[in-house]
Amino acid sequence: MSTDVFLALAHPARRRLLELLADGERTAGDLAAEFDMSRPAVAEHLAVLRQASLVTDEPRGRQRFYSLNPDPLEQVGAWLHPFERFWRRRLRDMADLLESEDEQ
């Protein structure tokens, strides 16, 4: 798993692009319309995602279609899996604390 994947996921605009692409392929213009930033800025974020192999692109005529490549995300999920017990314990502790405050 490349550090490029983590760097790509670090930016909220890139995470939003991945969320949009989870619903299916989209054109660059469709994706850019979802953001309050310039089309070149969105294109730069797409380039970072492409370099990290998180998206693929295919030119069709005058448009470029982007698709999600889930393989790197599966690798991230597999890497994070051993840490789930830590978060589950923390969330359980937080739920217990909130319940005890509600009872008071």
Strand content: 5-15%
Strand order of the largest sheet: 1-3-2
Please name the CATH architecture.
Answer: Orthogonal Bundle
Number of individual domains: 1
Separation of termini? 48 Å
The CATH homologous superfamily:
Winged helix-like DNA-binding domain superfamily/Winged helix DNA-binding domain
Characterise this structure.
The chain is of the alpha+beta class. It has a single domain (3-103), classed as Arc Repressor Mutant, subunit A, CATH 1.10.10. It has helices spanning 3-9, 12-21, 28-32, 39-51, 71-80, 84-103; strands spanning 26-27, 55-60, 63-68. The chain has a three-stranded antiparallel β-sheet. A hairpin with a 2-residue loop joins β2 and β3 (63-68). α1 runs antiparallel to α4. The longest helix is centred in the last third of the chain and has 20 residues, at 84-103. It is elongated and about 65 Å long. The model has no long low-confidence stretch (mean pLDDT 87).
